[in-house]
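Duplicate of #3305? Posting structure anyway:
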């Protein structure tokens, strides 16, 4: 029995005829456009990954600054006592 993947279900629901053609070995006529779309999705995925990393880095920098401010204020307060 053939395994049904989520992408197969999505393809079938989007266009049953295109799914049938693919299942029966018929290649799409727009291979260049499909390759360009795949490349576009790959680049977008990389940008999303980099944005997530930058966001995490920004939060860590903010946390570091807050810790340094607290340490500075504690030292300033203790020196005045």
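Output from current build:
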């Amino acid at each position: 029995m053939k395994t049904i993947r989520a992408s197969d279900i999505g393809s079938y629901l989007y266009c049953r005829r295109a799914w049938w053609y693919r299942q029966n070995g018929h290649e799409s006529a727009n291979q260049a456009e499909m390759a360009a779309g795949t490349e576009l999705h790959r680049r977008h995925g990389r940008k999303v990954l980099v944005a997530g990393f930058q966001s995490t880095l920004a939060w860590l920098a903010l946390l570091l600054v807050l810790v340094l401010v607290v340490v500075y204020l504690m030292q300033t307060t203790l020196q005045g006592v």
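Confirmed duplicate; merging threads. The two ends are 79 Å apart (CA to CA). Residues 31-80 form the longest helix (50 residues).
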